Amino acid sequence: MKPGTPGFNGARLREAREARGLPAIALADLIGVTRAAVSQYENSVQTPRPEVMEKIARTLQLPQEYFRRPISRIERGAIFYRSMSAATKAARARAECRYSWLREIVTYLREFVQFPPMNIPDFNLPDDPVRISYNQIEELATQSRQFWKIGEGPIGNVVRLLENNGIVVVRDELGAETLDAFSEFNAEDGTPYIILGSDKAVAVRSRFDAAHELGHLILHRNINKNRLSRPTDHQLIETQAHRFAGAFLLPGQAFASEFYSANLDALRILKPKWKVSIAMMVKRAEDLEFISSEQAKRLWINYSRRRWRAKEPLDGELEVEQPRLLVRAFELLLNEGIQTCEQILSHLPLNPNDIEALATLSGQLTKTSADEPSVRVLDLTGRTRQKSQHQIDKPGQVIQFAARKPHPTG
């Protein structure tokens, strides 16, 4: 009898397969075994023979060490998706597996880098979304701005604001038209996460997605995740997050002072200042009763006639906001010689392309060994530690990283 693979973790195989979007039968065909064998591997009934293990690693593009690592057993909290339909089930499974990889990356980085503390307002809201009114949501959006002291004007960079306040934001390909973004308050590390779709590169839409997910983190952190599977509750929760996003990005009083005409060309003028879509401004104007439902209907007819549903004016000119938190953390490790690429990939046995995609890196981990920074001894408690403090972006931003002791490499 041929030996299996010592230390093999079947849950890792399932995670990797779903992360690659492969049905079990497809993986079975690719590695030359039966679907029943794949099921036995994933349920740890048996382990793959060495030659099959090599095929698994090659097919799923992951090092064999990945399949021997333990996997988190912490039950997840409520993960907020725009769509819970059967059509998005595989895409959601893929997204959640890659989200698990992201949390492993963040856990690793925290061995060396102090992330910004979580600083999100907690309004102690009820666990029943029916008890949260639209007027209350408008007020909570205003109070959130006051909490962060950002006034009532346009928010320059929504993603940077979230990162500055302890929310880990990433962009990833979510692989489904209706999965614009998702978020979770993670129970394992107490960190709020927002994952934005990188396959929809329109700045105003992405800003709205980020504000929408912030709405979930603020409004719905106490909601039981079982309610998300109820269509009526899910629809209400999504509508509430939409309302919060509109109120957060475009406060009522500020919008009222600039809304002077119920026509699309007037709203087009406001778009580059507020960096929100014309469609959102129409909806916001109706929500705030600046216009009647009949006026809104005429605006929507004109909007469709101009073919703006596919692409609005200025959509190609406004820059999509990019997360920088994880990029800066990896730059700190590499530029200061705290870790080499080889050490990073040893502690994070993932495909380097996946790490780069999740952390928005640009080839730092896929360079040849000749490009590696030299290893040197660092005194992280004195002069070098001070030198290692990085700001997240331009001067004036508040995020700094304090380097911690190097991770043991043995």
UniProtKB/TrEMBL annotation:
Signal peptide: none
GO molecular function: DNA binding
InterPro entries assigned: Cro/C1-type_HTH (IPR001387), IrrE_HExxH (IPR010359), Lambda_DNA-bd_dom_sf (IPR010982), Rad_response_metalloprotease (IPR052345)
Gene3D superfamilies, per database record: 1.10.10.2910, lambda repressor-like DNA-binding domains
Positions of the HTH cro/C1-type domain: 13-67
Similarity field: Belongs to the short-chain fatty acyl-CoA assimilation regulator (ScfR) family.
Protein name: HTH cro/C1-type domain-containing protein
Source species of the chain: Methylomirabilis oxygeniifera
